[in-house]
Amino acid sequence: MKAVRFHEVGGPEVLRYEEVERPEPATGQVRLRVAASAFNAADNGMRAGFLPIPVVLPHVPGYDVSGVVDAIGDGVAGVAVGDTVIGFLPMERDGGAAEYVIAPADALTAAPTSIPLADAAALPSVALTAWQALFDEGQLEAGQRLLIVGAGGVVGKYAIRLAKRAGVHVIATASPRSIDAVRAAGADDIIDHTRTDLLSAVEGRVDVLLNLAPIDPEEFASLVSLVRDGGAVVSTTAFMATPGDDARGVRTATVFVLPNRQRLTELVALVDDGELVVEVTRRIPLTELAALHAEASVGRVPGKVIVLAE
Ligand SMILES: NC(=O)c1ccc[n+]([C@@H]2O[C@H](COP(=O)([O-])OP(=O)(O)OC[C@H]3O[C@@H](n4cnc5c(N)ncnc54)[C@H](OP(=O)(O)O)[C@@H]3O)[C@@H](O)[C@H]2O)c1
Pocket residues for ligand 1 (CB within 6 Å)? Predict the structure, then answer.
């Protein structure tokens, strides 16, 4: 089969599109005929050796995947050949930038039926990040107020929709390029962070501040004053510390997204109910993955890109 692998960590040039032996599923595993994998910033960080994830080399990137089950190992129940599935695969193991991938059966859930199977690869880790940030770490409840900084990105739009359906009032920051998308996702109040000072634009305090943007750490620290006593500051930008305020009981949480099959199943149901929208900005072939990594190495790749296996 064809796969993209890196044999050593380094720049985008270490990615090789090459012929690889088709893997066989062991006990508890299934093999997928990959429809697509998604590109995440963490794929870039793992290839570059920036992230402390113990990948075995050579490594196939692409831990968010969609595909069709085509072989089943011993001891697997509840999954059949021909099932269409998605999953957030263990990051240290081979991912879906290949024609086939081996997946633990318990990492997979039925794919949404309302969107193309390939596009469904865009959902798992990103939507799980939003859920984990809002409800596991933020512990948001109906009637509370949430401020999302960087709401116009991939995680942000899932976060807005999930928070709104939970009865939360959402204040979102977005630059002009993202304002329409943030409004469409359902934000109650939108603040253009390129023209407005956030500290003066937010009226009253919020229960949770969720940061999704690469803002200056000093600016991030100043925003803690917008959080009520006993509230929370949650961040997915794990490369910088999350500020809080012990004296006022403002706790902090940094999200490191974890696989959660049951929750992913719930997210799939929300997609099929039309409550979550899976947006894919580009679909590229496997042969262009190294070029995509090169693009991500010098700047932000906007939106969600999926990598088609054929
Ligand atoms: N820790 C984890 O487990 C985990 C998991 C997933 C993602 N992440 C990280 O979480 C972050 C968000 O992910 P994402 O996929 O949503 O990223 P994204 O699509 O790049 O979105 C980030 C948003 O930040 C906004 N932004 C940039 N500079 C800003 C500034 N100075 N002030 C306010 N907003 C600003 C941009 O808004 P505009 O569009 O309005 O310009 C952009 O839409 C990324 O750093 C990602 O790597 C972490």
Answer: 41, 129, 149-150, 152-156, 173-175, 177-178, 193, 212-215, 236-238, 255-257, 300
